[in-house]
Design a protein that fits this description.
Residues 43-122 form the YopX protein domain. This is YopX domain-containing protein. The protein has 123 residues and is mainly β. 0% of the residues lie in helices and 50% in strands. The chain folds into 2 domains: 6-52, no CATH class; 58-119, SH3 type barrels. It has strands at residues 6-12, 24-32, 35-39, 45-48, 54-60, 66-68, 71-77, 80-87, 95-97, 103-105, 114-119. The radius of gyration is 15 Å and the shape is elongated.
Amino acid sequence: MRKIKFRGKCISPKYEDESIYLKWIYGDLHHVGNEYFIYCDDGMWHEVDKDTIGQYAGVKDKNEKEIYDGDIVKFKNAFGGLIGVVRYYANCKPIIESDNKRSVDIAECNEEDLEVLGNKFED
């Protein structure tokens, strides 16, 4: 069964080392008022930028890197391939969608056919 987890960029490193400011934080997502927090394995709550939040797609790439909503992913197999952004639509599975609106269901891809190139927030 796929683990439900999220990532987001830390914007308010309260009570902790400033070195995590604007770094990716991974864990459980919580929404309180207008603020979004991720509860991490370290037992700390970290406020994150809501525009950088992405859900884990439930698969890893050929390098064992977890794939999240917002990642730029290269998909290639014997029939062709595409480079696109991982997206979740309402009540839908995650897909890789290219600029020309071609898409592939990420859950139906083999891990060795996927490679994370970056993400839409930094690249």
